[in-house]
Amino acid sequence: METDRIEALDVLRGVAILGTLGTNIWVFADQRGAAGFLDLPTPDSVAGVTELLLRFLSNGKFLALLSLMFGIGMELQYRSARKRGARWPGWHLWRAALLFFEGVVHYTLIFEFDVLIYYAIVSALVAFVIGRSERVISIWLWFQGLVFVTVIGLLTLAQHYRHVPLTIDGNGPSTTSWPAAVADRIVMAGTYRAEAVLVIPLGMFLFLLGSRLMRRGVLADSRQGQRLRNKLMQVGLGMGIPLNLITTFSGASWFFADRYVTAGFVSIGLLGLVTTLVHRLRGEPGPLRRGLISVGRVALSSYILQNLIAGILCYEWGFGLSSTFVSARPWWVIVLYLGVSALIMALSKLWLKWFSRGPVELLWQWAYLRPQRATVSRVERDSNRY
To answer: pTM of the full predicted structure?
Structure first.
């Protein structure tokens, strides 16, 4: 069961990472970059309907699934700390600080819609809740959910009656020059980080939900675990998909509900579905499953690399494909997504032949352990003095 559980986690992480590319690919594929991302197509043509359906498949769902994975990961870290008798949150706060630094670098140099900064803040906040009693966790979980849904409802009403356009001030980060794009991200940090108002409370809810589902055995290859996964699929897929389709095709006024609420319902269904498939598919993994496992094992490296590759291929400072294939949208975007995904899976499998962790993960591990080793060495020296 332990082997299956690890495999399920890796597959889920791989699905979540490549799923975020499915959302971000529309930013890279637009010749205006981030400035054109919020201009949704109209369903008045085959191309328009197709793009809306493709966006429906990825928008918000895998960001939420990735948040659930972070929550599950935090639960495992908490268990490990308790087992070793270590203080909690203790060194986890240093882990969150490293993630924050990594997110700042990723945002500044590569991609304006980075999520690592948000996750770092959320993980530091949730760390003080995850070790509390079930009652305290429940209160925090449902309080965050209630506040978040209320805010989204008010925003949706405002969009519906006031018709405030969803636009990005100015022209967005430059796509013609990489140094200019970096400078623009720094100047426009307030605009691109404004999503924190929504993502941080949503992240707290999903982190805590992931932790609670882990405690209830959502990844276990058991009858109890399967019953829980069946419930998640019934709610997340049976109810979430119809609601998500409605919000997707209801226009820009439903943008917030579509991206942050109904997509979140679908994500818990995906958690149940993917885990169920992993447990039922016995035997040697096929190419797709091996690729997802590899991406999941080097998740942070894959997340950063896929955004870097997409930027190089699409923007004017790279190969400029977003300007070359304007008339072929959305069909060429499908090819682009499949090509980048296949490349990421191939590179991750190749890397793991020689290393147990991804390049970013190796650097992370060194930075995480270095101060702890220094602390232990200092304590040992002080002990030897007496």
So the answer is: 0.91
